[in-house]
C-alpha cells in the first residue's frame, strides 16, 4: 500500500520552504547583489580599455604544462570546483534539524531533483540516480552563473564543457540500464522489435549526445554574446536586467539538461518493458 502520508508530508515541507519569505528574500538579495557588483566592476573596467566581445567569451591560453595548454576554461572550472567543494564542506559541517535559509534553499533544490527523477525515470526511490543527475544540475547551474563573480568567466560557452557533460550522460545511460535490467536485458532493446533497429538505436544515442552539447553551448554562448554587446552599447542601463535574465536562463538550462538526462536514463531503465 503506498505511503501517501509520507509523500504528502514531503510536499508540505517543500511548499513551506518555497513560501518562506526570508528564504526568498535572501535568494533574491544575493542574486541582485552579485549582479550589481559584477556590473559595476565590469563598467569600471570598460572605462579604461576597449571591450572585446571575443576576448570575453573565447577561451584563451593561461599557462602550459609540458605539451598541454591550460586555457581559461580549465582555470575557471577549477575555481568553480574549489568554490563548490569548500561550500559543500562548510554547509555539510553545519547541517541543522531546524534549517536556516541557505539549507532551506539547498534542500528544496535536492527535493526538486528527486521529484524530477521519480517522474521522468519512473522509479519510487531516486537514490541511485541522484548522484549523477544532481551533480550535473549543480555543476551546470553553477557554471552558468560563475561569471557573475568578478574575475571569473562561465566555462559553458566553451564547447568542450557541454561536450564533457553530454559524454557523462552518454556513458551513464548504459550504466544505469545494465544496473537495473541486467546486461542482456539492456542490450536486447537495441534489436527489438527487429534486428534492423540496431544501427538506428546506435545513431540515436550518438545524435542525442550532440543535441545535448549544442543545446547548452548555443544557448549560453548566444546569451553571453548579447550581454557583452549590451555592455558596449549601453553600459549603464541595460546590463543589470539582462544579467538578471541570464541568471534565469542559466538555471533554466541546468534544469533542462537534468530533465533530458532523466528522460534518457528512464528510456534505458524502461526500454521496451
Task: Describe it.
The chain is mostly helical. The protein has one domain (4-269). It has helices spanning 4-19, 21-48, 53-57, 72-93, 101-121, 130-145, 160-181, 183-187, 197-233, 239-269, and strands at 61-65, 68-71. A two-stranded antiparallel sheet has the order 1-2. α7 (160-181) runs antiparallel to α9. The longest helix is centred in the last third of the chain and has 37 residues, at 197-233. It starts with a helix and ends with a helix. The model is unreliable at 44-51 (pLDDT under 50).
Structural class: mainly alpha
Low confidence ranges:
44-51
Strand content: under 5%
Whole-angstrom Rg = 21 Å
Strand order of the largest sheet: 1-2
Task: Give the N-terminus to C-terminus distance in angstroms.
Answer: 23 Å
The residue-averaged pLDDT reads 78
- How many structural domains can be distinguished in the coordinates? 1
Q: Output the number of helix runs.
A: 10
The proportion of residues forming helix, as a percent range, comes to: over 70%
What is the β-strand count? 2
What can be said about the biggest beta sheet? 2 strands, antiparallel
Secondary-structure element series: HHHEEHHHHHHH
Shape: globular
